[in-house]
Amino acid sequence: MKALFSAIMMAVFSIAAHAQTRMETARKTAAENKELILLNFSGSDWCIPCIKLHKNILGTEDFRKLESDNVIVYINADFPRNKKNRLSEELKKENASLADQYNPKGIFPYTILLNADGKILKTWEGLPAEDVLAFTGEIKEIREKQKP
Questions:
Q1: Residue 4 lies inside a defined structural domain of this protein
Q2: Is the pTM of this model over 0.90?
Q3: Taking Cα atoms as reference points, which of 102, 96, 57 lies closest to residue 79?
Q4: Measured distance CA(59)–CA(19) in Å, rounded
Q5: Which domain, by its residues, includes 81?
Q6: Residues 6 or more apart in contact with residue 107 via CB below 8 angstroms
Q7: Is there a domain that residue 33 lies in?
Q8: Residue-wise pLDDT tens digits, 71-91
Q9: Least C-beta-crowded within 10 Å: which of 29, 86, 94, 112?
Q10: What is the average per-residue pLDDT within 19-24?
Q11: From the CB of residue 139, how many other CB atoms can be counted at a distance below 10 Å?
Q12: β-pairing, 36-42 with 72-78?
């Protein structure tokens, strides 16, 4: 009987732990480290501006430094179309939920800077006009203003 109870409890806890979304995890991490959340909606294999955004800004060392320096927690909500880039059903549902909440118009690329509470601080529709240094500088400046 104890073994059955233990097995049931382990199953319940593993489902609960697995059910935590990237946004919930990002909010928790951002709150703990006084970081911001950068949420990017992209079509990684069909949206030319999305591909350029990732190549020229989000995929650069300067951008990755924002993550390693605890400035942001980055979430990419991707909507690929090619079979070879297919996402898991769980990730598809999570991305769709994020889109329902933050990108109901279906803009690609669409980038949102949020605080740990989920409040929108800044949005970028389409490919940002600035280069990576200006883009990351703007994020750092917004973060500085958020500090108590």
A1: no
A2: no
A3: 96
A4: 28
A5: 39-146
A6: 41, 125, 126
A7: no
A8: 999 999 999 999 999 999 999
A9: 86
A10: 85
A11: 19
A12: parallel
Query: What does the alpha-carbon distance between residue 27 and residue 5 come to, in Å, rounded to a whole number?
Result: 33
At 46, phi and psi to the nearest 5?
-140, -20
Number of domains in the chain: 1
CA distance 120 to 98: 13
3-state helix, strand, coil in the chain (%, to 5): 55, 15, 30
For the chain, what percent of residues have pLDDT higher than 90? 84
Is residue 20 pLDDT above 80, yes or no?
no
**Residue 148 CA to its chain's centroid (Å):** 24
Tell me if 7 is assigned to some domain: no
Strands 120-125 and 36-42 turn out to be unpaired
Q: List the structure tokens of 63.
A: 């951008």
Give me the helices (H) in the chain, please: 2-18, 22-33, 48-53, 61-68, 89-102, 132-146
